[in-house]
UniProtKB/TrEMBL annotation, chains A, B:
InterPro entries assigned: Dehydroquinate_synthase, DHQS/DOIS_N, DHQS_C
The enzyme's E.C. designation: 4.2.3.4
Cofactor(s) listed in the protein's UniProt record: NAD(+)
Protein name: 3-dehydroquinate synthase
Organism expressing this protein natively: Chitinophaga defluvii
MF GO annotations: 3-dehydroquinate synthase activity
Enzyme class, broadest EC rank: lyase
Cited SUPFAM superfamilies: Dehydroquinate synthase-like
Domain 3-dehydroquinate synthase C-terminal stretches: 197-324
Keywords of this entry: Amino-acid biosynthesis, Aromatic amino acid biosynthesis, Lyase, NAD
Keyword Amino-acid biosynthesis in record: yes
Keyword Calcium attached: no
C-alpha cells in the first residue's frame, strides 16, 4: 500500500501574568509584553472586546484603556471598544458571534493583530472562539476579571459557544498568546462570584495537591472574608496546577478520553443547564465535588475523615453541596443523574469520570453505580440540612 | 513581574494513501486504517458527507459505501449519507454549515467518531471546518475526488468557509487523521478540472523542485491526453512536496507571514472572486503563475529562457495565462492589481509575495512595483495572443 506520512509538532507557549491596576499608565506589564511582539515595519492593531458587567463596576475603564494604549508604540488601538453583555447568555447569542466576526472584518484585524478579551469566563470563551476561527486564527489576549476565569478557564486553552442549548458545542483548542490577571478587577465582584470561583481551586487541590487542600482549609475564613492577598495566592496556585496539568499530562488538546480536570463536572454541567444557569458554574462544581467525593467514600476509595474534611471545607467556603434536582423526581431517576447516561453517549459509549483515591489524588472510572450515586446524593442532602 | 509560563507541543500525524477503487470490498486500505483505530470497548461512528457532483458520476457510490462499511468491525456507519452540492458555492452557504453541525448533534457524533468528507476541495474545506469546531474537534478523514484536492488542498492542514464573500474568512488549521486518494474517482472528471489541478503541481515544482518541473515538461502531452499513470505520479510527487513543506518548514499553522506555497495565488484569489468563480481555482493559479513568473523575469531574477519554459509549459497544459481583468479598466488600475493593496492591508501592512529566483527556487519579496506588474500583464497578453 502506497502512502506518504506526515508528522509535525506545533509548539504553543504563553505566559500568565499576575498584576494589579493593569491599565494604570505606570503598570508596564501589558506594554512590555506588546513591546516584545512589536515589529518596526508594521503597526499592529488591537481590538478590545469588553464585558459590560466589568464596565459597570469600573466605568472609567474605557478611558483608562484608551490612554494606556496611546503610550504603547508600534500598536494601534481600534478606538471603538466593543462592549458586550457578560454571563453565560453571550455564549447562546449567535448574532453576537457574527457581530464580532464583522468587527474583525470591518477593522481589518489580521493575523498580526491582537484581539483582547476583558471579562468573565463566558465573554472570554466567546472572544477566544471568534479569534480562533477568524482568518484561521488571530492572536488573542485574555484579561480575566473573575476568580473563576483567573484561576481556571482563562488560563487554559479552550474556547467555545453554546449551540441549541448544548454547552460549548462549537469551539476549538486555541491557546492565548498571553493572559493578564489583575487582582484589582476582583475587588468589585459580587460576593457570590468571589466565592464560586474558589470551587475550582478545591477541585484541583483534591485531584492534584493535598498540601494545597490543607492550605485552603487554613485559609477558608480569610477567603470568605474577602482577604485579597490570600485570594491572590489561591489564584496563583490554582492557575499553576491547572496549567501544569494541561502542559504536562501529554494531551493538551484532549485527543483522548481522560479529563481529570473535570472532577465534579459531569453533574455540574447538567445542574447549570437544568437551572437555566441560575446556579453559577462554580456553585454547580461545588455540588458536583460534594457528590463525587461522597460517592468516592461510599465506594471505599476515601475514608470518612477525608469525606468530612471535603464537605466541611465547601460549607465553610459558603458553597452549596446539594440541589433538589439531584433527588428522584416523581419516582423517576434524578434528571441530573439521568444526565450521566447522556454523558456516556456523548463520550461514545464509554464513561470516563474522575473520582478520589485520596485528598490530592484523582483516579478515573468507567462505570458509576446509580444506586450508590443516589445514596451519595442522600448523604449530601443530610450534610446540607446539618449545615443550614 | 510575577508570571507562570506555559509551554507544550502538540504532535500531529497522518498518512495520505494512494489507491484505486477505494470502496471495492477487496480494497482494504480504509478498513485497515480504521482497524488500527478500533477500540474493543466502544463502537465508533462514521458520518459520511458526500459531494453531489461525485455521486452524479458514480451513482453506485452510496450503495458501495454502505456495503463496504458493513464489513468493517468496531464501527457503525450512520445510514444516512449526507449528500451536498459540490463547488465553491457550498462555502458560501451558512445554513448548510449549520445543517451539517445539526447532523453531528443529531447522530451523536463525538470525539471518538469520524466524519468522512468525500468530494472536491470546497466540500472538503467545509466538512473539515464543521468537524474542527464541533465538540472542539472531531476526527475527520478526507477522500478528495479532484486532481486539485488530491495533490494540494486535500493533503494539507487547512479548512474554511467564506464569509460575506471573503474567501476562507472563517476556518482553522486542523489536520485530518487520514487522506485517501482514489485515482478511479478522477476518471469521470471534466477535462477542464483534470487540467486545472495540474497548475498546483507546476507551482510547487517552480518554488521547490526543478527536476519535477522538467518531468512536467516531458509529460505535458500525456497529462493533457488523460494518461492516468502519469497523472498518478504527478499527484504523488505534488502531494509529497506540498506535505514536506507543511511538515518541514517549521510553521505548519502559519503563525508567521511566510507563504511560499501561495506562489501565484495573490492574483488568483482576486481573479476567482472577480469572475464569480467562473474561473476554476487551478485556472486562476495558472494565470497567477504566469504573471508572477514574467514579473520575476522583468525584475531580473530569472532569465528569458526560464520564463519561456514556464509560460510554454502552461500553454502546453492548455491552462490560461492571461485574463482581461488584469488590464487597466477605463484608465484605472486593474481591479486584480488593486487587490494587491487589499492583500497588503490584509497582511497588516507588510506584503509577503513569493517570486522566482530560478526554476525550482522561490523567494519572498515585500514590495511589488505596480508599473513593472502592469508590464508583466502586457507580456502575458502577448504570449496569450501568440498561443491562441
Amino acid at each position: 500500500m502506497e502512502y506518504i506520512e506526515q508528522s509535525f509538532e506545533v509548539k504553543f507557549a504563553y505566559k500568565v501574568f499576575f498584576t494589579n491596576h493593569i491599565f494604570d499608565p505606570s503598570n508596564l506589564t501589558i506594554a512590555a509584553f506588546l513591546d516584545s511582539r512589536a515589529d518596526k515595519d508594521i503597526t499592529k492593531k488591537l481590538l478590545i472586546i469588553l464585558d459590560g458587567g466589568v464596565l459597570k463596576h469600573h466605568p472609567q475603564l474605557e478611558q483608562q484603556i484608551t490612554t494606556y494604549f496611546q503610550a504603547v508604540k508600534g500598536f494601534q488601538l481600534i478606538p471603538e471598544i466593543i462592549v458586550i453583555a457578560g454571563g453565560e447568555a453571550v455564549k447562546n447569542d449567535e448574532p453576537l458571534f457574527y457581530k464580532l466576526v464583522d468587527a474583525i472584518d470591518h477593522h481589518g484585524i489580521d493575523r498580526h493583530s491582537f484581539v483582547i478579551g476583558i471579562g468573565g469566563g463566558s465573554v472570554l470563551d466567546l472572544v477566544g472562539y471568534v479569534a480562533a476561527v477568524s482568518h484561521r486564527g488571530i492572536k488573542h489576549i485574555r484579561i480575566p476579571t473573575t476568580v473563576l476565569s483567573q484561576n481556571d478557564s482563562g488560563v487554559g486553552v479552550k474556547n467555545g459557544i453554546n449551540y441549541k442549548g448544548k454547552k460549548n458545542f462549537l469551539g476549538t483548542f486555541a491557546p492565548p498568546v498571553a493572559v493578564f490577571n489583575d487582582a484589582e478587577l476582583l475587588t468589585t465582584l459580587d460576593p457570590r462570584d468571589w466565592r464560586a470561583g474558589i470551587s475550582e481551586a478545591v477541585k484541583v487541590a483534591l485531584i492534584k495537591d493535598a498540601s494545597f487542600f490543607s492550605w485552603l482549609e487554613t485559609n477558608a475564613a480569610a477567603l470568605v472574608a474577602g482577604n485579597m492577598p490570600v485570594m491572590q495566592e489561591l489564584i496563583y496556585r490554582c492557575a499553576a496546577l491547572h496549567m501544569a496539568h494541561i502542559g504536562g499530562a501529554g494531551d493538551p488538546f484532549e485527543s483522548g478520553s481522560s479529563r481529570p480536570l473535570d472532577f465534579g463536572h459531569w453533574s455540574a454541567h447538567k445542574l447549570e443547564q437544568l437551572t437555566h444557569f441560575s446556579l453559577r458554574h462554580g456553585e454547580a462544581v461545588s455540588i458536583g465535588i460534594a457528590v463525587d467525593s461522597v460517592y468516592s467514600y461510599l465506594l471505599g476509595w476515601i475514608d470518612e475523615a477525608a469525606m468530612t474534611r471535603i464537605v466541611t471545607l465547601l460549607v465553610q467556603l459558603q458553597l452549596p453541596i446539594y440541589h433538589p434536582l439531584l433527588e428522584m423526581q416523581d419516582g423517576k431517576i434524578s434528571p441530573v443523574i439521568a444526565g450521566l447516561e447522556e454523558f456516556r453517549e456523548h463520550l461514545g459509549g464509554r464513561l470516563t469520570i474522575s473520582l478520589l483515591r485520596a485528598i490530592g489524588k484523582g483516579e478515573e472510572v468507567h462505570e458509576m453505580d446509580l444506586d450508590l450515586l443516589q445514596q451519595a446524593v442522600a448523604t449530601c442532602a443530610q450534610w446540607n440540612t446539618t449545615a443550614s
